[in-house]
Automatic annotation (TrEMBL):
Gene3D superfamilies: Vaccinia Virus protein VP39. The keyword tRNA-binding does not apply. Residues 21-318 form the Histidine-specific methyltransferase SAM-dependent domain. The keyword Repressor does not apply. This is Methyltransferase. One of its GO terms (molecular function) is methyltransferase activity. It comes from Hyphomicrobium denitrificans 1NES1. PANTHER family: ERGOTHIONEINE BIOSYNTHESIS PROTEIN 1 (PTHR43397).
Length: 321
C-alpha cells in the first residue's frame, strides 16, 4: 500500500510531465506515428524558433510584423479608454509592442501564456517601455476556457492572436478554439488574428525546409526533449527532417523520417520504426482569405476587416463577436 501511495504522490507532482508522456505514447502508438507540436517549445526549441523567424526563407514573421506596423493604427486606434488588449499565447510579447505604440495610456494589457517566466520577463520589459501601462498577466493554457479577474471582466476587450498559430489546427479545431476565445472575450469583443496565406508551394516548402537546417534542428529537438524529460533513447542521427505541402488539405506537414530499421524505448515501452517510416510532428494550415473568413463564421465570429502585405503572403483578420 505504501508503494501505491508513493506512486500516486509522484503522479500528482508530475501531472504536467504525465500529460507529455501520455500524449507521446499515444502518438507513437498510432498507425501513422505522430507527436504533438505544442511540445516543440522547450528552452532550446523556443530559441530555435526565434532563429527560424529570422531565416531568409521564413517569410511569415517579418511579413506579419510589417502588416502590423503599417496598419496598427487601423487595428487598435478605436480601442476606447479602459479597453483591454488580451493576447493568447503571448510568449515574449514582442509583436504586441507594435500595437501598444498605438494604444492610449488607459488601456490594460493581459498576456496569457503557460510560461510564468516568459510572462514575468515580458511584464518587466513592458513596464520599462510603457511606464503607465497596466500589465495583468494570466498563467494559463489559452485553449482552455478562461475567466478574467473581476475588475477586468466588464471592460471592452480586443483579443490578439498573431503568428498564424491558428494554422497548427485543422479548420474544425481552429473554429472550436476561436469559439473558446469568443466566449472568453465576451459580447462585442474583437479579435485581431494572424493567418498565413496559400501561395506557390515552392515558397511554402522552402519556408519549412531552410538551407541552414534550422527547421530540421527545431523538428529533431522534439526527440532530444523526449529523451531528456521522458528518459527515452531516440538517436537523433537516426531521423531526418521532412517538410511537404499537401495541396488538397492546404497544409504544410513536418515529419521525422527514420533513416533505418530501429527500436526506441520510451517510458518502458518499445516502439519499432522501419526504414523510411515517419513521425508526423506538425501541421501548418494555409488559408485563402475567404476560406479563413468561413472558419471564423463557423466559430460564431463575424469577419470584418482584413489586412495583407502587397504580395499577399500573410493576412491579419479582424473578427467581431
Ligand atoms: C509558430 C506554428 C506559426 O507553423 O509556421 C515554423 C511553427 N514550424 N517552422 C509555423 C513552425 C516550423 C510556426 N507557427
Amino acid at each position: 500500500r505504501r508503494a501505491q501511495t508513493l506512486a500516486k504522490a509522484h503522479l500528482d507532482l508530475g501531472e504536467v510531465e504525465d500529460e507529455f508522456a501520455s500524449s507521446v505514447i499515444e502518438g507513437l502508438s498510432n498507425a501513422q506515428k505522430s507527436l504533438p507540436c505544442r511540445y516543440f517549445y522547450d528552452a532550446r526549441g523556443s530559441a530555435l524558433f526565434e532563429d527560424i523567424t529570422r531565416l531568409p526563407e521564413y517569410y511569415p514573421t517579418r511579413t506579419e510584423t510589417q502588416i502590423l506596423m503599417d496598419y496598427a493604427d487601423d487595428m487598435v486606434g478605436s480601442v476606447g479608454d479602459g479597453g483591454l488588449l488580451v493576447e493568447f499565447g503571448s510568449g515574449s510579447s514582442l509583436k504586441t509592442e507594435i500595437l501598444l505604440d498605438h494604444l492610449g495610456s488607459s488601456v490594460a494589457y493581459v498576456p496569457i501564456d503557460v510560461s510564468e517566466t516568459a510572462l514575468a520577463d515580458a511584464k518587466a520589459r513592458l513596464m520599462r517601455r510603457y511606464p503607465s501601462l497596466d500589465v495583468r498577466p494570466i498563467v494559463a493554457d489559452f485553449s482552455h476556457a478562461l475567466t478574467f479577474p473581476a475588475d477586468l471582466a466588464a471592460r471592452e476587450k480586443t483579443g490578439f492572436f498573431p503568428g498564424s498559430t491558428i494554422g497548427n489546427l485543422a479548420p474544425q479545431e481552429a473554429a472550436s478554439l476561436l469559439t473558446v476565445f469568443g466566449r472568453a472575450l465576451g459580447r462585442s469583443s474583437r479579435l485581431i488574428i494572424g493567418v498565413d496565406l496559400k501561395k506557390d508551394p515552392r515558397r511554402l516548402i522552402d519556408a519549412y525546409n531552410d538551407q541552414a537546417g534550422i527547421t530540421a534542428a527545431f523538428n529533431l529537438n522534439l526527440l532530444r526533449r523526449i529523451n531528456r524529460e521522458l528518459g527515452a533513447n531516440f538517436d537523433e542521427q537516426g531521423f531526418r527532417h521532412r517538410a511537404i505541402y499537401d495541396p488538397a488539405k492546404g497544409r504544410i506537414e513536418m515529419h521525422l523520417v527514420s533513416r533505418h530499421d530501429q527500436q526506441v524505448s520510451v517510458c518502458g515501452r518499445t516502439f519499432h520504426f522501419s526504414a523510411g517510416e515517419s513521425i508526423h510532428t506538425e501541421n501548418s494550415y494555409k488559408y485563402a482569405l475567404e476560406q479563413f473568413r468561413e472558419v471564423a463564421r463557423a466559430s460564431g465570429w463575424r469577419p470584418a476587416r482584413v489586412w495583407t502585405d502587397t504580395r499577399e503572403q500573410f493576412s491579419v483578420h479582424e473578427l467581431i463577436w
